[in-house]
From TrEMBL:
<dbReference type="InterPro" id="IPR015947">
    <property type="entry name" value="PUA-like_sf"/>
</dbReference>
<protein>
    <submittedName>
        <fullName>Uncharacterized protein</fullName>
    </submittedName>
</protein>
């Protein structure tokens, strides 16, 4: 996770109570799409309220060696 993402996440945690923070067992930051244009399209849909969820492909986790999301995880999504 890049420093700017850690700072963004910390701002969010600073707004929570200790009990709320404890419910998260894992945090990561990912970006939308593979290019800036589509990442911005995705971000615009979120801001309009048209996009409210995301899912990652199993391929990403199995071939990149990343940890699969689990219940209780917190993921920060951002545009490139």
């Amino acid at each position: 996770m890049e420093q700017r993402h850690k700072e963004y996440l910390q701002k969010y945690f600073d707004s929570l109570t200790p009990a709320q923070i404890e419910q998260y067992s894992y945090c990561n930051a990912d970006y939308f799409c593979a290019d800036e244009y589509n990442a911005n399209v995705c971000a615009d849909l979120i801001l309009k309220g048209e996009k409210r969820a995301s899912c990652s492909m199993d391929y990403w986790y199995s071939h990149e060696g990343d940890r699969r999301p689990q219940e209780g995880d917190l993921t920060s999504q951002y545009a490139l």
